[in-house]
Automatic annotation (TrEMBL):
General function of this protein: Involved in phosphonate degradation.
Enzyme Commission identifier(s): 2.6.1.37
Alphabetized GO MF terms: 2-aminoethylphosphonate-pyruvate transaminase activity
Residues with PTM N6-(pyridoxal phosphate)lysine: K191
Protein's UniProt name: 2-aminoethylphosphonate--pyruvate transaminase
Reaction(s) catalysed (UniProt annotation): (2-aminoethyl)phosphonate + pyruvate = phosphonoacetaldehyde + L-alanine
Organism: Domibacillus mangrovi
Gene that this polypeptide is encoded by: phnW
Pfam families reported for this sequence: Aminotran_5 (PF00266)
């Protein structure tokens, strides 16, 4: 039987042991479960650079739930957020700000270009009303990496609160919130940390978070209230938590350490990426973004010609045990292949063989 692989940016392929960790039923208020939650919170802070300066708050729902919770908790209607936009997820931050009636302005570039630090500096210098800066680190629309450390550094020079959507990058590459001048970072259980869907988390400067009591316009998406309950009641969630996903995530964190930590995982992802791009180029595919800004998490490939059918391509690959993503680029015909999760270079080689067979049969490859 062919092993089915999710070559997507999350949900992603998980190990059998992570799946097995969900095989049980748990009560949310028992001490053992609350200790599990507290342990996860501490481990997330360690992965983000450690220290008492930061804390982690787990939030039910998808990653976007946590992004909206962070925006609503840390930014008010009296503030002004400068949002970096170069993909669908930057545009989603704008949409959330609009729904919450938060004043905003943008630094906007093409979906295949990285955000430029100079553009942020120009906006910050010209408009003193800006209080916050927020952007996506790894834009999974295209697979590019934005210069998070440099953008946050500039923002801090102007005294702004920095918020980073690191949904598809946290846990997959070394980053330190302190060294990178991040006040708030948002990510999810089912990305580079290789858990399953069910919750996201907000990592935040502890002093900043403690100043946000009563600020959120939502009950369920109030990061401060969730933080206060978890702090004061030993890891208790305010409302019913995804117990199975939490147990799976704890196992996934164990497996990150067993693998050798973030640096070793990043090296595996980068080997996957390099093997994939090299192999795809040999099969007449080109990447949508420059290799200099390409992330090791997901790659967008342009259609090889006008007759290429993504639907046909998708069906053939799925029959071979590979699930990929359609494109999200505004003006380019493209598709995306994720390289995170329990994916190894041997899997990439099998994928390339499947693609080679497809391209040969459709007459799009000279052999």
């Amino acid at each position: 039987m062919v092993r089915s692989l999710l070559l997507t940016p999350g949900p992603l392929t998980t190990t059998d042991t992570v799946k097995t960790a969900m095989m049980g039923d748990w009560c949310t208020w028992e001490e053992e479960y609350k200790k599990l939650t507290s342990g996860i919170r501490s481990r997330l802070v360690e992965l983000a650079g450690g220290g008492d300066q930061y804390t982690a708050v787990l939030m039910q729902g998808s990653g976007t739930f946590s992004v909206e919770a962070a925006i609503g908790t840390f930014i008010s209607k009296e503030d002004h957020v400068l949002i970096g936009v170069n993909g669908a997820y930057g545009r989603r931050i704008v949409e959330i700000a609009e729904r919450l009636h938060i004043p905003y302005s943008t630094v906007t570039v093409d979906d295949t270009k990285a955000l430029e630090v100079a553009s942020f500096e120009e906006k910050l210098r010209a408009d003193s009303s800006i209080t916050h800066v927020m952007f996506v680190h790894s834009e999974t629309t295209s697979g590019l990496l934005n210069p998070a450390q440099d953008i946050c550094r500039i923002a801090k020079q102007f005294g702004k609160t920095t918020m980073v959507d690191a949904m598809s990058s946290f846990g997959g590459m070394d980053m330190s919130m302190g060294d990178w001048n991040m006040d708030v970072l948002v990510s999810s259980s089912n990305k580079c940390l290789q858990g399953v869907p069910g919750f996201g988390f907000v990592l935040a400067n502890r002093a900043l978070l403690k100043s946000r009591k009563g600020c959120a316009p939502s009950l369920s998406l109030d990061v401060y209230d969730q933080f206060e309950t978890m702090e004061n009641d030993g890891g208790k969630w305010r409302f019913t938590s995804p117990t199975h996903a939490v147990h799976a995530f704890s196992q996934a964190l164990d497996e990150l350490i067993e693998e050798g930590g973030i640096q070793v995982r990043e090296a595996r992802y980068r080997q996957n990426q390099e093997t994939l791009i090299s192999g795809m180029e040999a099969l007449s595919f080109k990447t949508a973004v420059s290799k200099s800004i390409q992330s090791p998490f997901i790659v967008s490939f342009l259609y090889p010609d006008e007759t290429f059918s993504f639907d046909d391509f998708y069906k053939v690959l799925k029959a071979d045990g590979f699930v990929i993503y359609p494109g999200k680029l505004t003006d380019l015909q493209a598709f995306r292949i994720g390289i995170i999760g329990d994916i190894h270079v041997s899997d990439i080689h099998r994928l390339l063989e499947s693609i080679k067979m497809y391209m040969t049969e459709r007459g799009g490859l000279l052999v």
